[in-house]
Amino acid sequence: MTGFPSALAGPKRVRYDLTGIPVILYLRASQDRWGNSISVDSQYDEGHEFCTEAGATIVAVYSDNDLSGSTYATEARGGYEQALSDLIAGRGKMLWTFDHSRAQRDIEVYGRLRRICMETGALWAYGGRVYDMSDPVDRAATLRDAVEAEGAALNISIHSTRGIRARAKRGDHPGPKAYGYKPYYCQETGKSLGWYVVEEEKRVIRMIVDWLLGEKPRTLNWIARELNRLGIPTPRDRQWDRRKVSNLVDTSKHEKEWDAFLASLTPEDREWAYTVVERVTVGATPKDVAKYYNVNKVPYFHPSKWCGTKVKNIALSPPSAGLRRYKKQIMMRQEPDPNAPEGFRLVPIDTNWDEIKTYEEHLKLKALLEDKDRRASEPHPERVKHLWTGIATCGECGDKICSVFDKGMLRYRCAVKSCVLRRQDLTDAWLTEQALLLLEREDAAQIFRMHDEKGEAGKAQDDLDALRAQLADFRRQAVQKKISAESFAYFEAELLPEIEKAEERLRRALLPAVLETVVGKVDVRAAFLSLDVVQQRKILRAIMAPKIYKTKKKVRGKLDTTTIDPGFRYVVPPTMPGDEHQESGADLVGAA
Length: 592
What we know:
- By secondary structure, the protein is α/β, with parallel strands linked by helices.
- It is built from 19 helices and 19 strands.
- α8 crosses α10, α8 (242-252) crosses α11 and α16 (456-479) runs antiparallel to α17 (485-509).
- The termini are far apart.
């Protein structure tokens, strides 16, 4: 482009004549901890000075504060996309960035910008120079800068990853603070020295853990309702986030919803609401707006409410158990154990903050809340009436068994396809009798390992994690064609049975505490029948998984027990009663 100096000119600052050229300023900062946009503001000052000296006209300013431009970026850059759209539409004839890396640290993204500039004839200015993409020399110069920027991003990522992993191995706390804790800092250097326990939040965590693991476990929704009733604030209560800002902007687009929302606010909050929408409308990102309001201590309009998901997240939080995660995995170390096949076992590394719940409690909560085959508690304890609904399954299709009223009486039926149908009273009596026979065995405590050492669940979890990781590694090698499909099939066939055994050991180690109120008692039946139906179901779910199959027999007042599998989880079936159970037999147990 005539009149423009070469991109390879000397180090002195070049002065350009860009009179009348419409310029788009794009500003970006990768990190802005406090949301003050200091780096972005300084970039604007530099861009404004450059355009003023050159006589160019600034027609638009877009920014992405606290967003990465590297290949490792996980968030879309709305401001950058708007700047490119303006170039394509011809609203601007030059893009200005503070330096090359402000536009991107990714070769592919650079190629897209270069193509747009070549097709539209737009210029790109950075570092005090203007580059014309129709000039091969300028293209070569910007390409070299792009390669260097991507390499710098890679080095930053490598060094950051090493630093984070080193902190994790030392047991230092992660960056974002966990609920129940607050960081404390060195007064001289400002460096974080760790976390201390917040007693009010610790009390909430202990309430949730005790409610979930108690003899009468509560549901997540019940706990949420109780916490709301007690007026306990949620984590990050009344703090802004990107979602809240986006929802507010979306609501403003619908007149009736917007008017109703404004009517629920105070006059002062209405002004804040208008300001939020205005800031996003003129180009600020929802993330920037949320950070700005949080830094300036402006609370969100309405208090947050507890819900089942929030309760579950707090219950399963690894930091409250003194656990350090790295890449979503708990950091472990080897501890000598002569009883283990390898001579050691894996235990969590020591961390520099105090635990609020124990590692055993954490494992129990994971088993209760994450295992698809075992539910933590009844969905509505106050509504539970039947012993085996949701526990017994259809042997034909695998669906759960539900209770229905049919021909004047309650019956168990396959919930979806109605494959099977049984009288409920007879089924309850027979299956419960099988459970009682098992619980009454002299070796019941040994069967359920009631006296195992406290760390048994941790060992079982370690074994299971190791086996699953091994299988995942073989699967990854097969996808990458480092091993053949036949080899993977062999390894999978060897590992899957071992994984099932490890899952069974973990399930056995995490048997419900209420089982201890029955096993080993002088009168097991009386102890069992003294429990309420929720506690009885907790025991039954832990020790049995019955399956009911179709029957060809047409019997009246009797139960075809030959087509019912009690599904004992840990033992072979004990001595059974006769194949058919009489309706009026004396051995019918009063199952709740």
